[in-house]
Amino acid sequence: MLATAVLTGTVTGVVVSRDNQQAVPPAQQINALNEPAAHRTSLPAAGSVEDVAARVLPAVVSIQVTGPLKAGEGSGSIISADGMILTNNHVVTGVGEPAEIRVNLNDDRSFPADIVATDAQTDIAVIKLRDAKDLPVMSFGDSNDLTVGEQVVAIGSPLGLSATVTTGIVSALNRPVRAGGDRGESSLIDAIQTDAAINPGNSGGPLVNMEGQLIGMNSVIASTASGEAGSIGLGFAIPVNQARRIAQQLIDTGRVTHPLLGVLLAQKSRYRGGLVESLTPGGPAEKAGIRPGELVLKVDDRVIDSNDALIAAIRSHDFGETVTLKVADPESKTSRDVEVTLTDS
């Protein structure tokens, strides 16, 4: 019955169509190859990736470093009109001495550069272009304002491809990430995690918000089990508040003063948190009344689940700041809050 109904409907439709048929002129043949190009009539929307890229790219540089041992490359952000560049320590070191640094701007100009100062522990460096002036400067944002899920843009020179723009979101905050460097150096950063594509060569380049403000410095990527380096959606950036503070110290004094808690942490522990093995005599922790064997569970409102998490959380502060630690007896589970004023290293 269904087949019959469909068939009947089809025949009836044909009959009606014939009754109302009129002469129709042949359709015009359109060939897109013969049509004029369509030009855009509007500007990029404010806050779009295109708008952000146009505003930020002039202040992003590509860095090539050549030494007697090897050559390397990375990215950086212009932070002063006379040529101060913020980048990673691992971008400009480890190639042997003497090293030659060449920096290429987005407008195709090229400058030699010299190292101002570096800090291996936080993987931050400042270099300066020779004889540069009136350069475009990166705008700083506030990494404390970041929220998980907000859109960000990464810019740099992955694999030597300068002025590359990728986009993603803030995947997580306060990730303690340890990365090995040359000469056995190791850095520990309190990282912003992002899924924006970051590859070798992006190191030192900016991670910006949708207002075009620097909120992080791309520094580390996760690798697959096979050890292949490439974007797998797990990139990490140094929060700009920390990078800015350290860069200013490097420019002003040539060295970095790290905040000090004054504890030695147990390397092996079955507990979740930072287990205090011993205290520095007269150090901040001892003065605050922290005892060996206690477990640090929080720094202010931040949960601590490992030694690296505790170290990264402390390094995110400046010396002289007072933080509140939640410490507990791992056996009795009793906890208390302790205020500690951090001193310099």
UniProtKB/TrEMBL annotation:
SUPFAM superfamilies, sorted: PDZ domain-like (SSF50156), Trypsin-like serine proteases (SSF50494)
Domain PDZ: 250-331
Pfam families referenced in this protein's UniProt entry, alphabetically: PDZ_6, Trypsin_2
UniProt superkingdom: Bacteria
This protein's UniProt keywords: Hydrolase, Protease
InterPro entries: Chloro_Bact_Ser_Proteases, PDZ, PDZ_6, PDZ_sf, Peptidase_S1_PA, Peptidase_S1C
Name listed for the protein in its UniProt record: Trypsin-like peptidase domain-containing protein
Organism field: Corynebacterium marambiense
